Amino acid sequence: MNTFEDKLHASAHRLASQDNTRLYVPQNPLRQRRTYWGWVATPAAAVVGLIFGLYLHLFMAGGQEVQYVYQTDTLRIPHPVHDTLYLTQIVEREKIVAGEATEAKAEAIALQEETDTPACTSIQCDGINYAILASN
To answer: Distance between CA 49 and CA 46 in Å, rounded?
Structure first.
């Protein structure tokens, strides 16, 4: 005896098969066994380039022998090249103190001398640790 659930199940299968027959499924492009032109053109271009490169000197020189390569492979620079530029400014001032020098005046003069120093323009006195920039 067919129950309602069995009839509903059969009806759902019938409707699903009808929907599936109306669907269009294109052919899988990976199943086609056509040759991709890149696999042919790349080696052909490499062979043509090699042959052209081998006979290029005949076209360029007009029959004369042309040398494109230097005989020495090492370049030696006779003088050193410094890559760091040190900009330093030296300011010399003469302090003349009139009268008796007391401790307060001496401290004021020392404090003024510290503030009169020019700004640091060299990497030796800028206070930055450049060792951390070096890669191991």
So the answer is: 5
Alpha carbons 116 and 110: distance in angstroms, whole number:
10
44 falls in which pLDDT band (50, 70, 90)?
very high
| Cα-Cα-Cα-Cα dihedral sign, residues 14, 16, 20, 22 | positive
Q: 60 and 93 in contact (C-beta within 8 Å)?
A: no
Residues in the chain: 136
- pTM of this prediction? 0.26
Q: What is the 3-state secondary structure (H, E, C) of 51-78?
A: HHHHCHHHHHHCCCCCCCCCCCCCCCCC
Cα separation, 66 vs 64, whole angstroms: 6
- Location of structure tokens 């006979």: 55
Return the structure tokens found at 6.
Answer: 């069995």
Give CA–CA dist 87/120, Å, rounded: 9
